[in-house]
Amino acid sequence: MTLWEHCRIFHRAVKELCYRMEKRYTIAMVLDAFLGAVIGYVPIYFSARLIDALYERRPLETLVLYVALTVGLVFGLRLLHTYVVSVKQISEENIYRKEQWGYSEKAMELSYASIEDPEVDRLRYRIQKESQTGYNLYYLHRLIEDFTREFTSVLASIALVSSFFVLPEISLLARLAMLGGVFLTLAVHIVCTNISQKINRGLWDNVDMNIWGEQFSDYVEDYGSGKDIRLFAMEDFLAEEAYRREFDYCRHTVEISCRQALLTIPGIVLENVLKYGVYACLIVAALAGGITVGSIAKYVSCIMLLLSALQRIAGDIPLWMENNHYLKRYFSYFDIPNEMYRGTLTVEKRDDNDYQVEFRDVSFRYPNTQEYALRHVNLKFKIGEKLAIVGQNGSGKTTFIKLLCRLYDPCEGEILLNGVNIQKYDYDEYLSIFSVVFQDFQLFDFRLGEVVASGRRFDAKKVRECLEKANFGERFRELPRGAETYLYKGFDQSGLEISGGEAQKIALARALYRDAPFILLDEPTAALDPISEYEVYSNFNSISGDKTAVYISHRLASCRFCDKIAVFDKGRIVQVGKHEELVRETDGKYHELWTAQAQYYAG
Ligand code: ADP
User: Fold this and answer.
1) Is 361 left (phi over 0), alpha (psi -120 to 50) or beta?
2) What is the CA(396)–ligand 1 centre distance, in A?
3) Whose CB has fewer CB within 10 Å in the chain, the N or C terminal residue?
4) What pTM was estimated for this model as a whole?
5) Which of 340-354, 370-384, 446-460 has the lowest mean pLDDT?
6) Which protein residues touch ligand 1 with a CB less than 6 Å away?
7) Ligand 1 centroid to residue 408 C-alpha, Å
8) DSSP labels, 180-191
9) pLDDT higher than 50, residue 437
10) 568 Cα nearest atom in ligand 1
11) CA–CA gap between residue 577 and residue 571 (Å, rounded)
12) Which ligand 1 atom is nearest residue 402's CA?
C-alpha cells in the first residue's frame, strides 16, 4: 500500500468506524489522550520555575503563586480528565456492540449468492477473527489515542526544551549528533517493527491453519455431529488431527515470537546510547554554568519525555500501517455490493389470478464454478397449475426453484412473470408472491406463533389452522401454551423439542401462513413418516388451493396428482407432460425413474 492509500484508509476508518459510529466516544478518546499528556507537563514547568525562584531568593508571594498554579492547574485538569474518561467508558460498550451488529447487518444485506460464496465466507471469518485479536477497531482506537498523546507530548516537550538546543555551551557537533541520533533511533524502530508486523501477518495469511481450530470446536461441540463422532468412533482420529494441527500452529507462533523478540534489540541499544549522550551534554552545559538548577530538572524530564514519545510514535507507525491492511480487508467485506438488480415495477395484483411464469432459455452456473447447474431450460406454467419437478440428485431441481424466487439471477436467458423479466419487479414485492419450503429450511428458536408467522405479531387462529393443514394439529392441541410455546430451548428451557418430520410440518405451516399465490415445495415430505406423507399428498389440493404449486419430489407416485411434470436430467428439462403420458414413453427418463422406483417399493 502506498502512503496515500494508508492515509485514505485511516481517514475513512476514523470517519466511519469512530466518529460516525459513536461521536461522543471519539471526542472523549481524543480529549482523554490530550489531557493525559498535558497534565504531566504542568508540574515540570512550574517546579522548574519554583526551584529557580528559590535559588534566586524571590519574594514569598512569587513562590506561593507558583505552588498555587501547579496545584490548581493539575487539580482542575485532573477533574476534567476524570470526567472525560467516564464519558469515554460509558460509550465504549456501544461502539463494540455496534461493530458486532455491523456484521449481522451486512450479512442480511448481502445477496444470497454472496452468502453462499465460500470466498466471502472466508473473508468474513478472517476479519471477524482479526477483530477479536485486537486488529481493526481496537487498534484503531489505540492508535488515535497514542498519536494524540504522543504528538501532544512532542509539542509540549519541544516548547519546553527548545532553549536547550541553542545553548552556546553545547557544540554544533553535539547538537547534530543528538539530532542524528533521534532520527536514527526512529528509523531503526520503524524498520524493525515493520519487519516484525510482516512476520505476524504471515501467521494470519495462513487462514486454513486458523480456521481449523474453529472447525474443530464446531464438530465436537455440536450435538448434531456428536452422534456421528460417537457412532463412528471418530474421537481418536479427530483428537490426533487437532493435536497435529495445534502442534504446527504453536511451533509456528513460537518461531515468530523469537524472531520478533530479536528485532527489538537494535532499537533498545540505540535508545540507551542516545539517552546517555543527552545526559552527557546536560552535564557539560551545567558545569559550564549555562543552565540554571531549575532548568536542569526541566530539561532532563522533557528530553526523556520527548524521546519516549518519539519512540512510541516510531513503534506505532508500523502498527498503524499494519492495521490499515486489516482495515482495508474489513472495508473490502463491507463494500461487497448486493449485485442483485432490483427493479421498481410493482407486481400486478390480478383479480383473475391469471399469472404466467416462463423460463426462457435459462442457463445458470453457481459463482466460482465451471459446470452449469441448469442448461437451456424452457418451461411455462400458469397460476393454479400444480407443477411437479422430478429428477435424480444433482439434476438441477433446487437450483430451478432458487432462480424462480430470485435467490440467484440466471447467467443466460430470462425468467418472465406475465411477460415481464422478473428482474424488473421490485425485489421485495416479487419475493412476497412466494411461499417456499426448502429441503434445508431453518426454524428459529422463537414462539411457535412467531415461527409460523415469521414475525413478532401473529394471528393465533390462523397459526392453528395452518398447523392443522400441515398435519401438526394433533401435537399442537397437546401444547398447554399453544402458539406461545417456544420452539427448541434457545430462549426457553421448557421449549419444545421436535423431530425432523415435525419440523418439516411446521415449515410447511409457515409457508401456508404466508398465503402467497405461489407455493414452492422442495421435497416437503422427505422427513415424514408414511402416514403423514400420505396425508400431505391427499390434502395437497386443499393445502395449495388455487395457488400455483411447484413441487419437487423423489416419490414419483406423489406427482401423479400434478397437472404437469417436468423431468430434469443433468441440468436440462428432458420431458414435460402428465404422468400417464410420460410413463408411456418407455425410452424416456421418467419411465426409467418410475420403473426403478416401482421395483424398490415392490421389493
Ligand atoms: P437437485 O436439487 O436436483 O438435487 P441442485 O439444484 O441442488 O440439484 O444442484 C444442481 C447442481 O448444482 C449440482 O451439481 C450441485 O453440485 C450444484 N450446486 C448446488 N448448489 C451449489 C452451490 N451453492 N455452489 C456450487 N454448486 C452447487
Assistant:
1) left
2) 6
3) C
4) 0.71
5) 340-354
6) 116, 366, 369, 373, 391, 393-399
7) 12
8) HHHHHHHHHHHH
9) yes
10) 3
11) 18
12) 6
